[in-house]
Amino acid sequence: MIKAIIFDLDMCICDTLTVPKSALDPALKILHNSALPQQIKTKIEIALWNTSWDDIIRIYAIPEPIASELGNAYAKLETPDGVKTYGDENFIEKLELYKILVTSGYSRFQETKIKKLGIAHLFDEIIINASELKEKQKGKFTIFKEFLERKNLLPRQVLVVGDNPISELGAAKKLDMISVQTLRPTVKKWDEADYHIASLSELAMIIASC
Q: Are 100 and 7 in contact (CB under 8 A)?
């Protein structure tokens, strides 16, 4: 029986394509003026919209002090008006289970995003794995593992819903939790996920089947 659901934010509930491109201009300016190869700059600029900053640093091996300079710029950003959900978040409220939102990124940007989307009330708990708090960062694998322990839950009693195989879905797989990939526009299907959904309305059926 499913007793809890862990949700990712970006490309799961938040349509990151609705975040105005200008929102990241201060960080992009530093990126474009850096000594990184142009091919890497292009990949990073694309990744900024669907991958956490910490994963980007690791994936593209961004050296210091470029990583710090970019991080400092990113930490000052706020999510501007106009950001939207995919329009199916109301189905979260109907699920009578413990619901937790876990997202990675800089606190100010993620907090203002959650506020402007108006989704905080949908969750029993919200955790931001803050990029600026290096000494307190845990990563989603550790966050999920600790959640199982403090709630005394078995891995197969928890759904993890998100888009990213490198982040939340990969952590769920390693912990033997049930992974559900949200196939939002631009998301590449990951065959190793337990389930794939186009809408959060499909979660009720998955829960019933488990």
A: yes
Closest CA to 140 of 163, 119, 124, 121: 163
CA distances from 52 to 39, 71, 206 (A): 19, 11, 27
Distance CA 180, CA 194 (A): 6
Enter the pTM of the model: 0.88
Query: Angle, nearest 10°, between helix axes 38-47 and 25-33?
Result: 160
What burial class does residue 188 get, using C-beta atoms within 10 Å of its C-beta: 0-12 exposed, 13-18 middle, 19+ buried? exposed
Whether 76 contacts 7, CB under 8 Å = no
Q: 87: alpha, beta or left, given left = phi > 0 and alpha = psi -120 to 50?
A: left
Tokens in use for 131?
């990029």
Q: Over its length of 210 residues, how does the chain's per-residue pLDDT go in tens digits?
A: 999 999 999 999 999 999 988 888 988 898 999 999 999 999 998 888 777 777 888 889 998 888 888 888 888 889 999 999 999 999 999 999 999 999 998 899 999 999 999 999 999 999 999 877 666 678 899 999 999 999 999 999 999 999 999 999 999 999 999 999 999 999 999 999 999 999 999 999 999 998
Where do the domains of the chain lie, and which CATH numbers do they carry? Answer: 4-17+82-209 (3.40.50.1000), 20-75 (no CATH)
DSSP string spanning 69-98?
A: HHHHHHHT--PPTT-EE-S-THHHHT--SE
